[in-house]
Design brief:
The structure holds two protein chains of two kinds.
Chain A (H helix, E strand, L loop, with lengths): L1 H34 L6 H41 L6 H39 L2 H7 L4 H38 L4 H11 L2 H27 L4 H34 L8
Chain B lengths: L6 H8 L11 E12 L2 E12 L3 E5 L6 H8 L7 E6 L2 E2 L5 H7 L3 E4 L11 H12 L4 H14 L15 H13 L5 E5 L7 H25 L5 E6 L2 H7 L2 E6 L2 E7 H5 L4 H8 L10
Parallel strand pairs in B: 3-8, 3-9, 6-7, 7-8
Antiparallel strand pairs in B: 1-2, 1-4, 4-5, 9-10
Classes of the chains: A mainly alpha, B alpha/beta.
């Protein structure tokens, strides 16, 4: 009786901790495997990079423009117009787009589009015993499958952040023009507020978001079980865990960045 | 009273299952192996030996841990307790590199063939040779064509796995398992999803290829190949097996030469090998 209650109460927590532990181990093994020769994953890395690029460019284009124009653009512009300070929208966009929204939208699109495709692909291969067959044939599945996806997703997420920044800022310009402001005023406050730290912080954060997505999605795919239903469950869990991981990591990253660069707290 | 004897009694009933009495030196040995998934105990002190040079069979009801045995042999799973030896080397104690090398001793035919979906039959069969040998494409092509012809897939070189029937996928998986001339070939339920005639033909094919590989091993002076089939199909066991181990509830009930097992006095073995409903094995 007591054991049953204890199992019900603690088993999910134990399983969760085990999964987090397994993902951390997979991260360590992936980094070690990526650095250790032979570097046989080049071809698969290029394939995965192009695959993510092809899948994500259009959803990301729509998402960044719609999200940037709708949320920080229109909402902040409406607010700033009340005070006759629409020119400050540029400065606000440094905070909104470079530091937060572009990395978030990029990570969410990458996790939802490329990450789920990775989990579904690896999950289906796991169910068909292809991954077991690879291991039995003496292939290191971490090196051949996880490393190229890990590197490709990191690179593509980092590069897509530039893309999201561009279209995010374009949406801010659009919101300024729609509200009767001038592009020059937007540009002036934008470049007064922006710093190099904002840019590298944004790039580094998004690249690490890519690493989180890759590890979570590969792990969930490679540990899928229970037939087609199990693959569906793995995809669902991968997206949820990747989002949670991204949000949690963003909190730690932002706190660290603001603590180590106090000048970022001053909005100019 | 339990029908399953302890390991000592099992050895007494069918010879020492982990030693040479099983019919020669053992290619694979399980020594008091325990394995559980959560609260579900699958292997409970398994002692088992698979002899070299024979077609041996692990028989047992569904869900009794047969496929788990295969995964332990190739190091895809590790025992919670006990040891698994392949040619005398402990699998759980191998380093990653050593394990990858050790796996080259094995050819495994998975239940559905486990062909790589992105490659055609020819490339699937070439894969182990391209991965582990320095052979030229011409040599690889010759070996692969020979193996595909043996399994009757000469005309299917360019077919993708999703264009093949279940039986063809199994045969292609069989060809891939053989291209490296492995010392140990494992078949995970080779009869599942096949009609009785195809099952019989696959059984004959396994016997023919085993005999051919025995001859080659003798010529080369290499260890005779150990073929191990995991199944619950009694007809296949009667036709193909030279050595049988009966597994139930994570332990060996009896192990020995096929003829001996088919004349066994053990209630469970008799019930299972006769396919009767009356006996210790129920629906539970």
């Amino acid at each position: 009786m007591v054991r049953n209650v204890a199992d019900r109460a603690f088993l999910p927590a134990k399983n969760l901790l085990e999964e987090i532990g397994d993902m951390l181990i997979l991260t360590g093994r992936t980094i070690a495997s990526a650095l250790r020769p032979p570097y046989s994953y080049g071809g698969e890395f290029v394939n995965q990079f192009l695959f993510a690029l092809k899948l994500c460019w259009f959803p990301l284009l729509i998402s960044t423009i719609a999200f940037g124009y709708g949320a920080p653009g229109l909402q902040a512009a409406n607010f700033l117009v009340l005070f006759g300070a629409l020119d400050r929208l540029g400065g606000f966009f440094v905070l909104a787009v470079i530091r937060e929204f572009a990395p978030f939208v990029t990570a969410i699109v990458l996790a939802g589009v490329a990450g789920t495709a990775i989990t579904a692909d690896l999950g289906a291969r796991k169910i068909r015993e292809e991954l077991d067959a690879l291991q039995v044939l003496g292939v290191d599945t971490v090196k051949s499958l996880v490393v190229p996806r890990f590197l490709a997703l990191m690179l593509v997420t980092g590069l897509f952040n530039i893309y999201a920044l561009i279209f995010g800022v374009v949406s801010g310009v659009l919101a300024t023009v729609v509200n009767g402001g001038t592009i020059g005023a937007f540009q002036a406050t934008f470049f007064t507020g922006a710093s190099l730290t904002d840019l590298w912080g944004s790039m580094l954060k998004t690249t690490l978001f890519g690493a989180i997505i890759a590890i979570v999605c590969c792990y969930k795919g490679m540990s899928a079980s229970g037939g087609a239903e199990g693959v569906g469950r793995a995809v669902n869990q991968a997206v949820v865990i990747a989002f949670l991981g991204i949000f949690a990591f963003n909190y730690v990253f932002t706190q660290t960045l603001l603590a180590t660069n106090p000048e970022l707290a001053n909005l100019r | 009273m339990s029908i399953i004897p302890d390991s000592t009694a099992a050895a007494g009933a069918g010879g020492d299952p982990s030693g040479p009495a099983a019919g020669g030196p053992a290619a694979v040995e399980f020594i008091d192996v325990h394995k559980a998934f959560g609260a579900n105990k699958i292997l409970r002190g398994l002692n088992l030996g698979l002899p070299e040079g024979k077609i041996s069979m692990i028989l047992g009801p569904s869900g009794t841990g047969k496929s788990v045995c295969i995964k332990h042999m190739v190091g895809l799973l590790y025992p919670d307790r006990g040891d698994v030896l392949v040619h005398g080397q402990s699998v759980p104690n191998m380093a990653d590199d050593e394990l990858l090398r050790m796996r080259q001793k094995f050819g495994v035919l998975f239940q559905d063939g486990a062909l790589f979906g992105s490659m055609n039959v020819f490339d699937n069969t070439c894969f182990p040779l391209r991965q582990h040998t320095e052979k030229s494409e011409e040599e690889i092509g010759e070996i692969v064509s020979h193996r595909l012809a043996e399994v009757g897939l000469s005309d299917a070189h360019d077919k993708m796995p999703n264009e093949l029937s279940g039986g063809m996928r199994k045969r292609a998986g069989f060809a891939r398992a053989l291209v490296l001339d492995p010392d140990i070939v494992l078949f995970d339920e080779p009869d599942s999803g096949l009609d009785p005639v195809r099952t019989a033909l696959l059984g004959e094919l396994i016997q023919e290829i085993h005999a051919e590989m025995m001859g080659e091993a003798q010529r080369r002076g290499t260890p005779p190949p150990a073929f191990t089939l995991i199944t619950h199909d009694i007809m296949t066991a009667r036709r193909v097996a030279e050595h049988i181990s009966v597994l139930w509830k994570g332990q060996i009930v009896e192990s020995g030469p096929a003829e001996q097992l088919f004349d066994s006095d053990n209630q469970f073995v008799r019930q299972f090998l006769a396919g009767e409903s009356a006996g210790p094995l129920g629906m539970e």
